[in-house]
Design a protein that fits this description.
With 470 residues, the chain is an alpha/beta fold. It has two domains: 42-341, tm_1862 like domain (pyruvate-formate lyase- activating enzyme, Alpha-Beta Horseshoe), CATH 3.80.30.20; 381-459, Orthogonal Bundle (Arc Repressor Mutant, subunit A), CATH 1.10.10.920. 41% of the residues lie in helices and 21% in strands. The protein is built from 17 helices and 19 strands. The strands form five sheets. The protein has a nine-stranded mixed β-sheet with strand order 9-10-8-7-6-5-4-1-13, sandwiched between helices. The chain has a three-stranded antiparallel β-sheet with strand order 14-15-16, covered by helices on one side. A hairpin with a 2-residue loop joins strand 11 and strand 12. Helix 4 runs parallel beside helix 5 and helix 5 packs parallel to helix 7.
């Protein structure tokens, strides 16, 4: 009995320690899909001309090496999901499809005119919104129009986001025939109460059907997105969702925290009260329980919030230290240049960022006047580029180093001072000019990156800009 009591006491101390860490580090912070993060872009020194110059430089450097990535934003949805933070247009009128696609293709042509040679495409991702809102004929028209002015890399990866309720077998087959081999489905949670709250009602049978269709057709990677910390969500809901996930065993999973940012995302999230949401401690338990369950059925943790089977390319990219992170999240294809097409899309030339206008009418107006529809951005200075590499290293590989003198920056000693407390808490180790994030520190990687974020440190926001880190 003494041994059992001793084990119970140790577990209690571990749980108390974890709770204390949550309380200590659960602050608002960026998700670091870029550095600098969007609220800290220097728009005053940005211009469309400067953006074009950085992109031309990047295309010249990367076209014969990595190629480029394309993100195409397809914003239309038939109904509003209240958890969603994406830029979308709610409509049931499908006559909006063709004008939008024609505008996107015209935007692509405006970019192609900047380049001296045909761009080599390594990656295409269709996001939204709901890409499967669009008919197969219109999606085929879009992709063929894009590829008409490009060269496709041999090792390309094309992927899209599908809604389980409206993705048809024809969608999957058409996109497969166009070169798509990866699809991800937004699941969120299988509990009817939670689904009703977030206005995303989709039976397990629908998910099973589209997952099996994709595999029958030949897709090599099927992904599911699951969210914890949703309104009215409990630990039992998480357990049930992962048990059902076990039945389908998708190749990869995004298992991430609901970002409650009603001051940014508007009406959908404003309908939830604080008491409707799980507490920070409840969210931690949801995450750790889910992570443990996923591990028990063969999933490996990839970076932050992502999991994959060992057979999936995302796991192999992590093993080979080829994992990359950009505005689309984690990716196996590291390209220097990423062009975002469509409203609100963000582009990355490695030397600069640019975001398109968010309004559909303004987007059409600029495109019709042969103007690339960028409205804000940031040109990185030398310090930004160094910090960006450190943050990418931490987010993708859970370690970074300044043994290479090019990765040293003047404020590094200050960043190391900010990290001392995290080192004392066992979240990181610092030795031989290298920072390594411990397994205990993985859930706090956003906090660790914040120590390097000089723009955030120099100008801490007076109002909340970001979701909570836990």
């Amino acid at each position: 009995m003494r041994g059992i009591a001793s084990t119970f006491g140790i577990r209690n101390r571990i749980e108390k320690m974890k709770t204390n860490l949550i309380q200590k580090y659960n602050i608002a912070g960026p998700r670091y899909t870029s550095y600098p993060t969007v609220p800290y872009w220097d728009n005053s020194s940005f211009s469309l001309q400067k953006w074009k110059e950085t992109l031309q430089r990047s295309i010249k450097e990367s076209n014969h090496k990595d190629g480029i990535s394309l993100y195409i934003h397809l914003p239309f949805c038939e109904s509003m999901c209240t958890f969603c933070g994406c830029n979308k247009r709610i409509t049931k009128r499908h006559e909006v499809e063709q004008p939008y696609i024609k505008a996107v293709l015209k935007e692509w042509n405006l970019y192609c005119e900047l380049f001296k040679e045909r761009p080599r495409i390594k990656e295409i991702h269709l996001g939204g919104g709901t890409p499967t809102f669009f008919s197969t004929a219109n999606l085929e028209f879009l992709i063929k129009g894009i590829l008409r002015r490009a060269i496709v890399a041999e090792d390309h990866e094309f992927s899209f986001e599908g809604h389980p309720n409206n993705t048809t077998k024809e969608h999957l087959q058409t996109l497969y025939d166009l070169g798509f081999r990866r699809v991800s489905y937004g699941i969120q949670d299988y509990n009817p109460v939670v689904q009703k709250a977030i206005h995303r009602i989709q039976p397990f049978e629908n998910v099973k059907k589209v997952t099996e269709w994709a595999r029958e057709i030949g897709y090599t990677s099927v992904g599911h997105d699951i969210i914890f910390g949703l309104p009215f969500q409990t630990l039992d809901h998480i357990k049930t969702t992962i048990e059902k996930t076990k039945e389908l065993l998708p190749d990869r999973l995004a298992f991430y925290s609901y970002a409650h940012v009603p001051w940014i995302k508007g009406n959908g999230q404003r309908g939830f009260k604080k008491e409707d949401l799980p507490s920070a401690e409840e969210k931690r338990i949801q995450y750790e329980t889910g992570k443990e369950m996923l591990s028990s059925i063969g999933y490996e943790e990839i970076g932050m919030d992502h999991f994959a089977l060992r057979t999936d390319s995302l796991y192999k990219a992590m093993e080979n230290e080829e994992l990359h992170r950009n505005f689309m999240g984690y990716t196996t294809t590291k390209t220097q240049a990423m062009i975002g097409l469509g409203i609100s899309s963000i582009s990355d030339s490695w030397y600069g960022f640019a975001q398109n206008v968010k309004g559909l009418e303004e987007y059409y107006h600029l495109i019709n006047n042969n103007i690339i529809p960028v409205y804000r951005g940031h040109i990185l200075n030398e310090e930004d580029e160094v910090i960006r590499r450190h943050i990418l290293n931490l987010m993708c590989h859970f370690k970074t180093s300044w043994k290479d003198k090019e990765l040293y920056f003047n404020e590094l000693p200050d960043a190391l001072i900010r990290l001392k407390e995290m080192e004392a808490d066992g979240l990181i180790t610092i030795e031989d000019k290298t920072i390594s994030v411990t397994a205990k520190g993985h859930p706090f990687v956003r906090n660790i990156c914040m120590a390097f974020d000089l723009r955030l440190q120099k100008d801490k926001p007076e109002t909340q800009l970001f979701s909570m880190t836990i």
